[in-house]
Design brief:
Layout: H1 7-12, H2 33-42, H3 45-50, H4 52-65, E1 71-72, H5 79-86, E2 88-91, E3 95-98, H6 105-110, H7 121-134, E4 140-145, H8 147-156, H9 164-172, H10 174-198, E5 202-207, H11 215-232, E6 236-237, E7 240-241, E8 244-248, H12 255-259, E9 265-267, H13 274-281, E10 286-291, H14 300-314, E11 320-324, H15 334-348
Parallel strand pairs: 1-4, 4-5, 5-8, 8-9, 9-10, 10-11
Antiparallel strand pairs: 2-3, 6-7
The structure holds coproporphyrinogen III.
């Protein structure tokens, strides 16, 4: 089926567009009352992810409210470790946790690489259902966590502030961590390629915690494995390029190295000026970002001013996908997200004249 709106895919490949495309990290979520209602029907978050019809419903909810240029699969990065048998659960207010964290070399050796159409078949079913229901309106983004980011949750047993367990493993038993990261990279390649075959038209890798490493260790423990994934991905499917975006939160120092992996686009958080990012790597890759998600608490005029500033920073031409620099906060007024999306489309026209 012909894509009616392919701005997002075109911008990732630096092809001309009429306006700058926009979507929001975590656009389906608790800031929307209709999401909370559907989650209530499902019971809990993982049951929602495992029900293709309901996962499809919450994927589409933000698209009904806002003129977003892409949908993102409703799922989580922790599906892979869950499918490896770690026992993912969510404790209210405390984020994700694992019943059986990875804490020894034998535990790493025992981890299976999940079959994406078996243990993770529910994700592929969600992808197929969403593609069917999108009816070619906008492209669907598939995603995964980076090996390093997944490993932080698997070794720490959940979210962390200081990352002492994973860093102890990194520096005291580096070979064991490399074995884990290598296994995760293989699992992510299989998982993302299965998402692409099921219908994801672009994929994004979330490296939420790469920024807690030193520059040298970032390359060694995070970037190297993302590069391995980029090299293993299906880059063309159904007659169309499948762009890949890498996002390392707090990775602004390392843009040149990230761009050199062969990815199509680099996601930016808000701690870097997009004009600087463009000057550094804009000839190599497209850029995605990068408004501070907390700006959505501001009055409409302030949100619009910030959007205008970021658009001016990127300047003329294609190669920019507008986004927040990280996930939308759960207590943001939904109408402010609408102000943001509309401002991107309205104010970006001037940068795409030809
Ligand atoms: O963007 C989207 O709309 C797609 C869905 C999506 C979710 N998680 C849904 C979700 C995506 C892309 C993710 C990725 C994800 N998950 C990341 C990487 C991006 C980032 O935010 O840095 C990370 C680190 C996770 C791990 C994770 N899962 C966390 C930290 C949490 C939040 C826990 C909490 O209580 O807030 C989750 C749960 C989660 N994933 C929710 C959603 C909508 C909230 C679950 C709920 O209570 O309904």
């Amino acid at each position: 089926m012909e894509l009616k709106n392919d701005r997002y895919l075109r911008a990732l490949l630096k092809q001309p567009t009429d306006v700058t495309p926009v979507w929001m990290m975590r656009q389906a979520g608790r800031y929307l009352p209709e999401y909370r209602a559907t989650r209530g029907v499902a019971g809990d978050f993982m049951s929602l992810c495992k029900n293709a019809e309901l996962a499809c419903e919450v994927t589409l909810q933000p698209l009904r409210r806002y003129e977003l240029d892409a949908a993102i699969l409703f799922s989580d990065i922790l599906t892979i470790p869950d499918a490896m048998g770690l026992g993912l659960y969510f404790e209210t207010g405390e984020g994700p946790k694992f019943e059986r964290p990875v804490c020894s070399e034998s535990a790493v050796d025992a981890l299976p690489i999940p079959d994406p159409e078996d243990e993770l078949g529910y994700v592929m079913n969600a992808v197929r259902t969403i593609r069917r229901e999108l009816k070619g309106s906008v492209p669907l983004i598939g995603f995964s966590g980076s090996p390093w980011t997944l490993a932080t949750y698997m070794v720490e047993g959940g979210s962390s502030k200081a990352f002492t367990k994973i860093k102890k493993l990194a520096f005291a038993q580096p070979k064991v961590l490399h074995k884990l990261l290598d296994k995760l990279a293989d699992a992510v390649v299989l998982y993302l390629n299965a998402q692409i075959k099921a219908g994801a038209q672009s994929v994004m890798i979330f490296d939420t915690w790469g920024g807690v490493l030193s520059p040298r260790d970032y390359k060694l423990f995070s970037l190297q494995y993302m590069e391995k994934i980029v090299n293993g991905l299906i880059r063309e499917h159904d007659g169309r390029k499948v762009p890949v975006t890498l996002f390392t939160k707090n990775g602004g120092m390392w843009l040149e190295s990230i761009a050199a992996t062969g990815c199509d686009a680099v996601g930016l958080d808000w701690t870097i000026d997009i004009a600087d990012a463009k000057a550094r790597v804009g000839d190599k890759v497209a850029l995605q970002g990068n408004m501070d998600p907390s700006m959505l608490y501001a009055p409409a005029a302030r949100i619009e001013e910030e959007v205008a500033h970021i658009l001016a920073g990127f300047g003329e031409g294609s190669g920019h996908v507008f986004n927040l620099g990280h996930g939308i906060h759960l207590d943001v007024p939904p109408e402010n997200a609408g102000v943001f999306v509309d401002a991107v489309h309205r104010l970006s026209k001037a940068y795409h004249k030809r």
